[in-house]
Amino acid sequence: MSLDFQQVREQIRALGENVTRQSQGINERRLKAERLLAEKADAFDWLRQRVRKVVEFYDPNLRCALPRQENPEPLDGRFPLPPAPEKATILAADGSQISPDRHSEVNYCLINVGAIQMTLGGNEAPKVTVSSKLIFGDELITPAGLRTEQQLALERDFYERSLLVGLAETAPAPIASFTDGPMELWGTMDSAQGGAQGDAYQASLERYQEVLERLRQLNVAAAGYVDKPAANLVVRLLEVADAPEERLADVKHELSLLGVTDRHLFNKTLRPGERSAVFAIQSRSALQYRPELKIHFFYLNVGSEGRPWLARVEIPAWVARNAALLDLLHSVLVQQARILGARAYPYLLHRAHEAAVVSFEEKNQVTQMIVRELRNRGIEVDEVSHKQALKNQPGRASFHLRPK
Predict the structure, then answer these.
(1) pLDDT in tens, 323-351
(2) Cis bond upstream, residue 229 (ω within 30)
């Protein structure tokens, strides 16, 4: 049976009516957010103290932006595009994964990472590196049970940056490197919850920080690039600043800027090529990072006149504190995004994604390779589940979407 389009059409009509009613309120809250950003632009100490008070007494799980500790920049600051470097190495990596599937003949995981290396000021063609890791048998089992998609995603992040480390060790300086998505590992298996899952997350975080530490030793301008960000880290800071003193105890419910995102806020203020101030992050997970590795971020307009496009760029503390590395990253990301024209997105990240993606046909090929190997060694192989076998029948097609 197909969709009931009559029901869907009625719900879309109701949706449109609701959005129309809500849009005026959101526009008013956006204007308020812009005003607060300007009013609190230089109130660095007051903002830090207010956030500290909320965290210590009322809401230890508060997650928001913070003015950075060293050389804070005005919250509404705009920083122009630095000159392009004459020479630099650019490294980009992206990864994909095949998660365990109990409906298949064999259960396995696969992490596939693609990396691209390019030299600015040189004549060499971009170099493509692909690294594939198969996880099978006992390796599928962790103290918390069968590997989950979240655990596999943590490992993918680790392998992406491990591959970048290997390339950076022999690449000429200065080096800018970036991956797709946040640098901060959070919200999946917080070690505060304890138990096997918490221990597994903590172990992943320690390994991840070792890789970041190696990038720091190599003086790499490392970053995570978040396209079309939906976060409200700066807006949440403004809500904390806006909350009346007598309401701080209930600050988690003080949503005076509900519906406003950082992207809305900086879309209007940043001109093409400009970045925002660099912010620190207040969160539970931030406490687990070593001081020199703590994650910071800034917003960057990689669009053009009349077509603004905002990205959030996450960087570790050693990059945030180094003006030369920060300018290198700023310049390279804008330059890379402009290569693809109207679809502003770093060119090398796009190439890395193409190198890393595993097609449905390739997944089936890997599955059959494993099946043949096991059968050749006299090992019994399970059958496809009846549910999956029915789905695989010719002429049947459906969409089951999962987040990356």
Answers:
(1) 999 999 999 999 999 999 889 999 999 99
(2) no
Residues in the chain: 404
CB atoms within 10 A of CB 248: 16
Q: Which domains does the chain have, with CATH numbers?
A: 88-356 (3.30.2170)
What is d(CA 369, CA 374) in angstroms, rounded to the nearest whole number? 9
Terminal-residue alpha carbon distance, the chain: 28
Neighbours of 166 (CB within 10 A): 15
Q: What stretch of H or E contains 178? A: strand 175-180
Which residues have a Cβ under 8 Å from the Cβ of 393 and sit 6 or more positions away? none
Confidence of residue 142 (pLDDT cuts 50, 70, 90): confident
What CA–CA distance (Å, rounded) separates 404 from 402? 6
Q: Is the dihedral of CA 13, 15, 16, 21 positive or negative?
A: positive
Is the CB of residue 348 less than 8 Å from the CB of residue 339?
A: no
What is the DSSP pairing of strand 175-180 with strand 221-227? parallel
CA distance 179 to 74: 27
Burial (0-12, 13-18, 19+ Cβ within 10 Å), 168: buried
Q: How far apart are CA 117 and CA 91, in angstroms?
A: 5
Q: What is the pLDDT of residue 395?
A: 57
3-class DSSP assignment, residue 135: strand
pTM of the model: 0.89
Tokens of 298: 């800034």
CA distances to 92, 210, 274 from 327, rounded to whole Å, are 17, 25, 11
pLDDT in tens, 39-79: 999 999 999 999 999 999 999 999 999 999 989 999 999 99
Buried/exposed code over 269-303 (b: 16+ C-beta within 10 A; e: otherwise): bbebbbbbbbbbbbbbbbebbeeebbbbbbbbbbb
Smallest CA-to-CA distance from 324 within 190, 212, 220 is with: 220
pLDDT of res. 190: 47
Q: Is the model's pLDDT at 401 over the cut of 70?
A: no
Is 276 a residue whose pLDDT tops 90? yes
Which residues have a Cβ under 8 Å from the Cβ of 25 and sit 6 or more positions away? 259
Which secondary-structure segment (H or E) carries 27?
helix 5-39
Reported as a single tens digit per residue, the pLDDT across 293-316 is 999 999 999 999 989 999 999 999
Which amino acid would we find at residue 84? Answer: A
CA-based angle 63:64:69, to the nearest 5? 115
Number of helices and strands (H, E) in the chain? 11, 11
Instruction: Quote the mean pLDDT of the chain.
Output: 88
